[in-house]
User: Fold these one by one.
Assistant:
Number 1:
Amino acid sequence: QVQLVESGGGVVQPGMSLRLSCAASGFTFTIYSMQWVRQAPGKGLEWVALISDDGSNKLYADSVKGRITISRDTSKNTLYLQMNSLRAEDTAMYYCARDNTVTHALDLWGQGTMVIVSS
Amino acid sequence: QSVLTQPPSVSGAPGQRVTISCTGSSSNIGAGYDVHWYQQFPGTAPKLLIYANRYRPSGVPDRFSASKSGISASLVITGLQAEDEAEYYCQSHDSSLSGPKVFGTGTKVSVL
């Protein structure tokens, strides 16, 4: 079954760290760039980060640059998002998504994992 | 800080036609980058609805269509149905420093 399954969300205090995971299955993970997209409660979608198929190229939104690192482990078919120095404004549902190799549309999404930053 | 602007809401009666606009700038849609559209129901993940300006993935009803011109794009729902009530987002690439991928502000479609 072609799917993405996120995990690792939770409630953390400001300044703390969290690592999100996204397990891919049912497709050849290594040929796709992958992205993280987040959505604050009641708000719209916000692009967060992108990693190329081979992991050599990483791009970040200005809002998270320097605090968040995207990575991937091809041996585990898993995408990660390491989030440090978390702020209240990072509170959101975090989705991983597959970047279509031809169109670069996000053609497969996970169900999301919720991150709440609160003291 | 979306750089693609959509109307907050549109509505229509069943069977009617509704149009959602997505207005960008010369650094994204106007630069020739493709526009994609996503549909999101409450409490669920977004789903790809239209890719590369006008193409529907397998399984998407043909009452959904889209186009792009200049710095704008549009999504049209022809023959609106109750199950189309959802949030819709456009997305494109942006060459500015704010990040390569940008989403629209989102539009809530309500079926009267």
Number 2:
Amino acid sequence: GESVGLHLPTLSVQEGDNSIINCAYSNSASDYFIWYKQESGKGPQFIIDIRSNMDKRQGQRVTVLLNKTVKHLSLQIAATQPGDSAVYFCADRYSGAGSYQLTFGKGTKLSVIP
Amino acid sequence: KAGVTQTPRYLIKTRGQQVTLSCSPISGHRSVSWYQQTPGQGLQFLFEYFSETQRNKGNFPGRFSGRQFSNSRSEMNVSTLELGDSALYLCASSRPRTGKNTGELFFGEGSRLTVL
């Protein structure tokens, strides 16, 4: 089956620096992509999403970039804070299947050094 | 607005037993999905329900089943538990994908099942 993978399992950044978390997806038919943040003992929390007709979308301190040519997704976090420490998951979906099913990557653990 | 509520939050079972997990979606959400999360396999899709009908099913054995009620609440059941079923079971709900709504999933805190 199709899968979404992550390049880096762990990422340590200094507080105040920018963080970049990368993700590769394999399903060329996927048209919707989403990032989740999961803190210890909690469920995944929605961060930002992007449709395939866009290549960039910005939120509050976060930006998602989509490169469909190389099937690559990235999450940029500006001015990283200790509260950003968590595991981040990317996921993709093919909307044409009529399902909301997401295919998740393994996750990247972000550690922010105070 | 209340989020997705899952019960119980923690439970311990022994091999061979069965377990039922419950999920109450966000008010107004009619789609409910279940995912299994383990350290080794990550988040894996179990099944998805919409209007009391299973719309999609992941690659799990028949021991895993679910259902959705008319009020959109959902339950999942695992029979003849195995050690490998120890995991965090996550429920997510979603609004219909219409217009600008992309149908993002909103997750609950999960039910952590330990099988001894």
